[in-house]
Fold this protein.
Amino acid sequence: MTNDAFPLPKFVQYENAATAKEFLGVSADNSLKVQGIARPKNEQEVIQLVQWANQHEVTLVPLSSPSGNRRHGLAGLKDAPFVVLDMSKMSRVIHADSDDAIAVIEPGVTFPEFDVQLKKHKLRSIKPFLPRASKSVLACYLEREPTTLPNEHWDSTDPLASLSLTMGNGESFRSGGAALYDDLDEALKNGARQMMASGPIGTDYTRVMLGSQGTLGITSWASIYCERIPDIEQGFLYGAEDASTLVSIVRHLALHQLGAQYFILNRIQLAAALAKNSIHFAELVQTFSKDDMPTWCLYVNIASREVMPEESMQWQLADLLSMVDTLPVTCISQQSPNYLSELETRLHSPSKEFYKDVPYGTHTDVFCITQMSNAADLVNVAHSLLAGISNIQVGVYLQPMIQGTNCHVEISLFHTNEQSEKLADVEMKLVTALADNGGFFSRPYGKWSEDAFSRNETIVPHLRRVKEIFDPAGILSPGKLCY
């Protein structure tokens, strides 16, 4: 594919392979056949680009973040030339509304930029656990990454509401409340808010797009729910030797709607979350071991807002403490308050470097979802499989989801670049082991999808039919999922 092969839109920038691969965050000798980078500035240019790609049979791979690890974003692509659709130039916070705690943003908006705008409205973004500063807010939500606010998570679409889409066939479409008006500015001026994910009528195209990894359509803007900044909040860090002990606290928090944020980490994951650099990580791991830091840690943030905040805090704290007093747990935040304060700083202020790359420079993740009652058993399965592997540190992150009814289980292997190839087989063995023991891979990347879809082959023809409807020419990220 060359510049003379067909007329190029002015916003498609053809660059040499080294420059393009540097943008993608892959090595210069990587076999990916990236041909160029398109950087649309508005929705109309997105539509033009998709129509152009259909006309000339050009493969497009949409990405939202301007930098960072592209491993999942590029996983599973077919070995064919493609143009990267870099959405990072579309970075407007179009609207924020304190009354309804909702905002409308474009895909290039990152969490730090978003929070600056939201703070003016006494709101803040609902975040996953320690995203890198350059992480796209919309990419996070479209991929269904778990957030640290399980009591505000009522449905798998949350906190995402309606979308403005360009389908793979080049047609524009708006889902949910966004479909009420053709003109977004007019809708906002007239007081309309895009608060519903489902619709028009009984359809739910927002849900169809979730987890599709850019294979069905491209989102130009979306409405999302935000968190109201609490009047009062107080964080705690508890520790236990058994993950099941902390899971029982989580069940209580979910049942009684206590706490804003809560999640469970093992002490290796906590060390990575707190580390400033690789030396500091090694020091923390050694200190945690020497000081008998509990194997498992639970962070919980108790918050109250507006109506009688002091009274609300009082009963919530009393309930939490009465629960904790009956269990064999240690209050880490009481013994080592610096760990708590540093963790809370990072929870609200994402760092430029992804925390998982701090220990050794790179990492390998495997994650799935399961019932809360099965989370500890899945972790034991992972530890058994990884027991004989030397020179890696194994971090674990457990995030309750949807009112605590299920749990995101994330195993992180912190290792050097030299170990990456060796751990590729281990990664797939871990995927298989977790799936065999009840882990559900709702976000399968690359080779994970082979295992995930082979366990439910009956759904594959239906998903391929969906692909044919939205992207009949197959121009969007071919090779991902079962497409």
Observations:
- The two ends are 23 Å apart (CA to CA).
- The chain has 17 helices and 18 strands.
- The chain has a mean pLDDT of 91.
